Amino acid sequence: MPVLRYGVVSLAEIRDAALGSVRRRSDAAKFVQELAWRDYFQRVYDKLGDRIWDDREEYKTGYPAAYAPTLPDDVRDAATGLPCTDGFARDLRETGYLHNHARMWLAAYLVHWRRVRWQAGASWFLCHVLDGDPASNARSWQWVASTFAPKPYLFNRENLEQYTDGRYCRTCPLHGRGPFEGTYDDLQGRLLRSVPTPPGTDPGRRGASRHDRHETGRRQRDRW
Fold this sequence. Notes:
2 domains
């Protein structure tokens, strides 16, 4: 919300309003949790200052130094030929807003499919998103990139199609043979040189299951 970005209201005021508008506090628990993440990111920003733009960890993709420093023109101009990424880029430019799912998908496409440094994408977002908080924005891009997370965030067409009701996939000229086709194992094999095993998981499993990744994305989606 822009009112949060510019300090018109505080996180505590938003929290109290949310808790006061529901009969049961548990109904507002998820929203309050996301406010807590925003507060945490701001505290990290307060500690790091401009270092918020530095990688906190190495990329866990097997490509530590293979990322371009600038945003590709076709992504900025919504001219990739992919209805989804072009639609997201147009919405970003024309409305100053993207649903949190779309923010994650566009970030993942830029970092993992196009191999562009997350800083280029994060700077691009801050030029357009009306609710763009520098701390949440930078931390969330790093979460997608895997420089502030145990593994990279990826998505596939099934995930995109499910959460957009097929809006983009129905008109995609590459439907069935596009860059987002396949299982998560397929995508990991194509996009990553290494597949990290997060702490607490079975080392015999090759990456996370579809359910695991969807749940991780669901928990993350409101932090931008």
